[in-house]
Write a structure and sequence with these properties.
alpha/beta
């Protein structure tokens, strides 16, 4: 499936990955697959699948095995726990912001939370397009309370974009019956035209620049 795709989307709270899935997505990236992490706390725990104890059907349950220690090499940042804050623009001239009208230091209020991505990886060409020191949301805090959203090019002309927040999708749509995300101290403010435009820019670039026909 990944061999036929131009882009892979990770959305919202994409925490649990098997090592096989990690390696498959990494191979896909190296062969031209673009990756859009519209998510936070992604690729945080490695899991082990188990067959059914009832009928032997494969992969019917899973358990956490250990934390990934190399997720940053795939997604471009480390994955962390709970904190909240605004999406703060650091590179308004970057193509991800085309058509948004945003300037350096502008904020998209409340977009960073439940969990987030922080320390950028040492990857050639990686750019931090949004960053902020966050407000800890609970007793479960990380030694790194800094949000980072990153973009970097890959060797086949494909891209990785990492929004670094579980609540990114809250800015995309609010369908009927949807209960907006909220914590005691923070929460997003509904549909955001900048979030929609950034997402469009990312997906358009990944499709146009794809080395895959």
């Amino acid at each position: 499936m990944l061999d036929r795709a131009k882009a892979f989307l990770s959305v919202a709270h994409d925490e649990y990955w098997s090592r096989d899935v990690y390696e498959a997505v990494l191979r896909g990236r190296e062969s031209g697959l673009s990756l859009a992490f519209l998510s936070g706390n992604a690729v945080y725990h490695e899991i082990q699948f188990y067959d059914s104890e009832v009928d032997g059907a494969p992969c019917r349950s899973f358990a956490r095995k250990e934390r990934f220690d190399d997720e940053n090499l795939l997604v471009g940042t480390k994955s962390y726990g709970s904190a909240g804050g605004d999406w703060v623009i650091t590179k308004p001239d970057h193509w991800v912001y085309e058509g948004t009208g945003l300037s350096a230091g502008d904020r998209i209020p409340g977009l960073i939370s439940w969990e987030y991505h922080g320390t950028p990886a040492d990857i050639e060409g990686l750019e931090v397009v949004a960053a902020l020191a966050l407000y800890p949301r609970s007793h479960y805090t990380s030694p790194d309370q800094n949000h980072s959203a990153v973009v970097f090019p890959c060797k086949k002309g494909n891209w990785v974009f990492n929004a670094g927040t579980i609540w990114w999708s809250e800015g995309l749509s609010q369908p009927p019956g949807h209960t907006p995300a909220r914590t005691g101290r923070s929460g997003p403010f509904g549909v955001s035209e900048p979030v929609q435009r950034i997402t469009r820019n990312v997906l358009d670039r990944m499709i146009v620049d794809s080395p895959r026909s």
